[in-house]
Structures are given as C-alpha cells and as structure tokens.
Automatic annotation (TrEMBL):
<dbReference type="Pfam" id="PF00650">
    <property type="entry name" value="CRAL_TRIO"/>
</dbReference>
<feature type="compositionally biased region" description="Low complexity">
    <location>
        <begin position="11"/>
        <end position="21"/>
    </location>
</feature>
<dbReference type="InterPro" id="IPR011074">
    <property type="entry name" value="CRAL/TRIO_N_dom"/>
</dbReference>
<dbReference type="Pfam" id="PF03765">
    <property type="entry name" value="CRAL_TRIO_N"/>
</dbReference>
<dbReference type="GO" id="GO:1902936">
    <property type="term" value="F:phosphatidylinositol bisphosphate binding"/>
</dbReference>
<dbReference type="InterPro" id="IPR036273">
    <property type="entry name" value="CRAL/TRIO_N_dom_sf"/>
</dbReference>
<feature type="region of interest" description="Disordered">
    <location>
        <begin position="1"/>
        <end position="30"/>
    </location>
</feature>
<feature type="domain" description="CRAL-TRIO">
    <location>
        <begin position="117"/>
        <end position="282"/>
    </location>
</feature>
<dbReference type="GO" id="GO:0016020">
    <property type="term" value="C:membrane"/>
</dbReference>
<dbReference type="InterPro" id="IPR001251">
    <property type="entry name" value="CRAL-TRIO_dom"/>
</dbReference>
<dbReference type="InterPro" id="IPR036865">
    <property type="entry name" value="CRAL-TRIO_dom_sf"/>
</dbReference>
<protein>
    <submittedName>
        <fullName>Alpha-tocopherol transfer protein-like isoform X2</fullName>
    </submittedName>
</protein>
Length: 342
C-alpha cells in the first residue's frame, strides 16, 4: 500500500525561485527534531520533507495563516504546524486547508468537541471500546484497536465513542514518529448486532469520515477488520460512498481468519485475543497515558473561544461536516441497508 505521489510543495512567496536561489531558513525557534536518521530518510522519500528547509516550510505556512486567515485562532508553533505539512506532503496550500478544516470540524460538532478531556470519558475508556496496542506494526505504525461490542448503547450515546477516538488520535499525533509513519486500525466487530449498528447512520458516518480524511493531520495506512458479521456489509455500504478511493482500498476484511490477519500484523505484536503471542490485551497502559494528559486537553479543548464565524470567516467545514440534523428518510435508509444483509 504505497503512498500516491502528491504534488510538490508550493511556496506563495518563492514559487519562481530554485532552491539554490532561496535564502537560508530562519534560525531555529525552539523546535528540535526527534526523528531517527531512518525516519528522516523516510520523511524525505515519502513526504518530501527536507530537513535543511524544514523551518523555511513551517515559516511559509505560518505566513500564509497570518495573511489569509488572520482571525484563525490556532497555534503557530513549529511542531504544531509541522503536523499539517507532513500530512499533506509539504504542499503549503493543502496544509493550510487541512489546518482550516481541523478547526472548522472542532467547531461544527460541539457534542463531540466541547469539554473534550480524558476524565470526561472514563466510562468509555474503562469499557475497553478502544486502546492502542503496545507494539507497532512492521512499518512502525501504532495500532489503534477498536472493539464496538464493548459499547452498551443504553449507557451513553455513540458520540462518546467518537470523542474517545478523537482524543486518542490527538494523543498519538503528538509523536513525530506517528506523523511520519501513520497509524493502522484493527477493528473487531465480533458480536455487533443490528440494533447497535443502526446507531451508525449516514449522518454520523459522513461527519466521522470527513474528519479522518480531511480534518485531521494523521495518515491512516490500513484498516484491518476482523470477526465481522454479515451485518458489516450494511455498515460498509453506509461508509463506502464517503470514502476516497485511496482510503477505501486500505480496508481489509479478514473475517475469523486470523492467519490472514497475521500476514499484515505479525503474531508477535498482537495479543492472544487475535492469535498473537504478546500476552493478553491490556487497556490500562493506554488509559493511564490519556488520563495523564488531562491538563493538555483542558488547555486545548476546554477554554472559551470566540464564535466560529469570527474565527473561520468564510471557511466551510469539509463535505459532510455541517451541523444539520439527520433526517428521518436517511435513518430509514440505514435500517433498510442493514436488514438487506440478512
């Protein structure tokens, strides 16, 4: 699953100059690269990241934000802006759009993003709905493990699960290693019933996929689905129309064939629940890591801010992220698709 070749970076102020004619990058402003030599080489090859011009690229994006989005309430620190440059292979225009989308998403779905902090999601974390496995895959990708069967709809709404996923992504993307390598998702659909699947309709699907594809600076390299019941055909039928072809091609359905899964995720990095040799699945370490980050999330997500319009101006959320309520017709369509799988 190789990355597609994206367009080369474009600088708004120096597009007509060759790199040999450009002025040297500005003096360091506190950012210290934590990437290993191998990851520096990988970032250069896959993301068009050149260490000798890294700070120049960050400054170019910073200048674009100040010029084109002067009211955008965002961090302009080097490390933060680098996330968006890496996610869009150092194409300045696409990185800026991703940054705008990132903030637009957060303000267009208050049920998910208001008061987003680990202590508010203790019940979700304790349920085991999600965790990050302790070992990375052979490419260095962290493995986000989702287990929808652990969710009891009568306990809390599906948006709480989405909040926990976003919280986890925010924590993961703080690592430069994750920014370069990306993540993979291991989704275990064992025991997911028709009634539970019906909660994930087109309205929710469009918003979640809109965030993951166009509103968050993370590279999803693969989604491995295991133990999917027949009902998953209906779930995927709901999801697929909103997926870009590149992402849709990264879904791999393994059913109960764990040997097939092991061809992508070796047994030595998986817990025994998935035929691995890395011990029992343990959610406590990741939960502790999230809870230890409480103050960071309070600063980022729990402070009063200006109205969305004053921040984003004419910027619109990515397709599918409007705050319109789902209509009855779309919900009836969901149930129709799910029932057709039986």
């Amino acid at each position: 699953m190789s990355e597609e070749s994206d367009s080369l970076r474009t600088s708004p102020s120096a597009a007509s100059l060759s790199e040999s004619e450009l002025p040297p990058p500005p003096a360091p402003t506190g950012y210290v690269c934590s990437l290993t030599e191998d990851l520096v080489a990988k970032a250069r090859e896959e993301l068009q990241e050149k260490p000798e011009w890294r700070l120049r690229d960050v400054q170019a994006l910073r200048d674009m934000v100040r010029k084109e989005c002067p009211n955008l309430s965002t961090s302009l620190e080097d490390a933060f802006l680098l996330r968006f440059l890496r996610a869009r292979k150092f194409d300045y225009d696409r990185a800026l759009q991703l940054l705008i989308n990132y903030h637009s998403c957060r303000r267009s779905w208050p049920e998910v993003f208001n008061n987003l902090r680990p202590s508010a999601l203790k019940e979700v974390l304790a349920s085991g709905f999600l965790t990050v496995l302790p070992h990375t895959d052979p490419r260095g990708c962290h493995i986000l493990c989702l287990r929808p069967d652990r969710w009891i709809p009568s306990n809390y709404p599906i948006t709480e699960n989405i909040r926990a996923i976003y919280l986890t992504l925010e924590k993961l993307i703080q690592s430069e290693e994750t920014q370069v390598n990306g993540i993979v998702i291991l989704a275990d659909y064992k025991g997911v019933s028709l009634s539970k699947a019906s909660h994930f309709g087109p309205f929710i699907a469009k918003k979640v996929i809109g965030i993951l594809q166009d509103g968050f600076p993370i590279r999803i390299k693969a989604v491995y689905v295991v133990n999917e019941p027949r009902i998953f055909k209906g779930i995927f039928a709901i999801i697929k129309p909103f997926l870009k072809e590149k992402i849709a091609n990264r879904f791999f359905l393994h059913g109960s064939d764990l040997n097939s899964l092991h061809s992508n995720l070796p047994r030595n990095i998986l817990p025994k629940e998935y035929g691995g040799t890395a011990g029992e699945l343990d959610i406590t370490a990741w939960n502790a890591a999230l809870l230890a980050s409480e103050e960071d999330f309070v600063r980022e997500f729990c402070q009063p801010g200006p109205p969305c319009d004053s921040i984003l101006g004419q910027a619109l959320p990515p397709k599918g992220l409007s705050s319109e309520a789902p209509c009855d017709d779309s919900m009836r369509a969901v149930k129709s698709q799910l029932y057709s799988c039986y």
